[in-house]
Amino acid sequence: MISSLPTTFNLRRRKICISHVCLICHNGVESSFHALVRCDAAEAVWEESKFWELFASFRGGCITELFLFLREKLCKSDFELCCVIFWFIWYNRNQILHGGVTKEPSAILEDASLRRNEFCASLSSMEVKVLDYEVPRNYKWKPPEAGLLKLNIDAAVVKGYTYVGVGAVVRDHWGPIVAAVATRLVGSFGVFIAECLALREGLQFCLASNLEVNVVETDALNVASAVLSYSPLSEESSILADISLLLRRFRNASVHHIPPTR
Length: 262
Ligand SMILES: [Zn+2]
Description:
Blueprint: H1 8-13, H2 32-38, H3 40-48, H4 52-57, H5 63-73, H6 76-97, H7 105-125, E1 150-157, E2 163-171, E3 177-186, H8 191-208, E4 215-218, H9 221-228, H10 237-248, E5 254-257
Parallel strand pairs: 1-4, 4-5
Antiparallel strand pairs: 1-2, 2-3
The site of zinc ion has 8 residues, from loops.
C-alpha cells in the first residue's frame, strides 16, 4: 500500500525527485515509515495520541511491519482510527510542503476521531442502491496495467436522508488499496448527482494526495456519459465543470463505466 505514497524516497525511485531527504525535518530519508511515523510532524501527533506507548514499543523499521503489528495489537475500531490518523498525517504533510493550512497534533487527532465516527455512522445507515439493469454475472474488478493507478468511486444514497456517502479507492496493478477516502456530504441528492459528487471528491482526494491516477471507473453509466459529453447548460454543469477541470490536472486520466461488482 504505502510504497505508492509519493514520498521523496519513492519519487527518487521513480526518478522524479533528486533528493530523498525529508523536506520537512531534513533528518533522513523520507520513506513512508518516516513520513507517517518518525518525521517530527508525525511523531508529534502520535506522542499526543493514546497509541504513543504502543508506537514506542514497536521495534520494526518499515510501515508494512507496523501495520501488521498494529493489526495484531489493536481492536478493530482503534486500528481504523490509526489508519485515519495516518491519512491526516499525510494530508498535513502535504499542507506543510505546499503552503496550505496546517493543523496542530491535537486538532489532527480530533479531526481523525470525528471522521472515523462519521464514516462508521454513514456505513451503518447506507443502503445498497437499487440497480435498474442486470449485473453481468462474471464481472470482476480488473487491475490497471503495471505502473498505472486506477481510481474507483461510488456513492450511497438513502432516501429521506439529508446527506449522501461517497467513497473513492485507488489501487495499482497489484490490486491492494493504495489509498482510500470515504466521507459524508450534506444535502439531499439523487443518485446521479451523488455519483458526480463522489467522482469530484475522488479526484480532489487524489490531487491532494499527489496520486497520479490514470484510469477512473464508476458504475454509474450516466455519470461516465455526462463527463464525456459535458454540457454547460445541464443541471449538474457546475459539478461536471469541476470534474472536467480536475481531470485536466492528471496527465492521462480517462473515465470509464464498469458494471457494479457485488
Ligand atoms: Zn521528516
